[in-house]
UniProtKB/TrEMBL annotation:
It is an enzyme of class 3 (hydrolase). It comes from the Bacteria. Pfam families: dCMP_cyt_deam_1. GO terms for biological process: nucleobase-containing small molecule metabolic process; pyrimidine-containing compound metabolic process. InterPro entries: APOBEC/CMP_deaminase_Zn-bd, CMP_dCMP_dom, Cyt/Deoxycyt_deaminase, Cytidine_deaminase-like. The keyword Amino-acid biosynthesis does not apply. One of its GO terms (molecular function) is cytidine deaminase activity. Keywords: Hydrolase, Metal-binding, Zinc. One of its GO terms (cellular component) is cytosol. Residues 32-167 form the CMP/dCMP-type deaminase domain. This is Cytidine deaminase. PANTHER family: CYTIDINE DEAMINASE (PTHR11644).
Length: 167
């Protein structure tokens, strides 16, 4: 859960606020109960199409029904036309199981075939998609950002606290 708080001054009616975000850091290990999901995300990186960057990303989505759906980044010579692993997996998961919510997503990466040391993080577009999935299913889910030396576990809602919503 995140907290926004502060104090309004009489002079300018502006509020100074701070944002605190809770997350768990795992050193050289995966979060308890998500080991299999993390291995699936790392394993699927071999299917990434990343001939331009050499940066292979894999995502594994654990559905509330126990099914696991995986996706990888798919690059294109026209860079904006590619798609991130997170959105590839999330869009497929929501299409294949539209009535089932998401329990967790694990994200892993290899740079030119070598597992990254520090955790990989979703881009802004992927964070926005995650925020909308939380709204759609009205249930938050875990995001596991994997690195060989450090893995972070955080709730999807905390990745983009000021997400875009339609009025």
């Amino acid at each position: 859960m995140f907290y926004i708080g502060g104090k309004i001054t009489k002079k300018n009616r502006m509020e100074k606020a701070e944002l605190k975000i809770d997350y768990t850091v795992c050193r050289e290990s995966y979060p308890e109960g998500f080991e299999e999901l993390c291995r699936a995300a790392l394993d699927v990186t071999k299917n990434a199409y990343c001939v331009y960057s050499g940066f292979a990303v894999g995502a594994a989505v654990l559905m509330n029904n126990g099914k696991v759906v995986c996706g990888t980044n798919q690059e294109n010579v026209a860079y904006p036309s590619g798609l991130c692993a997170e959105r590839t997996a999330l869009f497929y998961a929501c299409s294949a199981y539209p009535e089932t919510g998401i329990k967790a997503i694990a994200i892993a990466a290899r740079d030119h075939g070598v597992e990254v040391d520090e955790n990989v993080t979703p881009c802004g577009a992927c964070r926005q998609v995650m925020a909308e999935i939380v709204q759609r299913y009205k249930v938050d889910f875990d995001v596991i950002m994997i690195g060989k030396k450090r893995t972070i576990l955080i709730k999807a809602s905390q990745l983009l606290p000021f997400s875009f919503v339609m009025p």
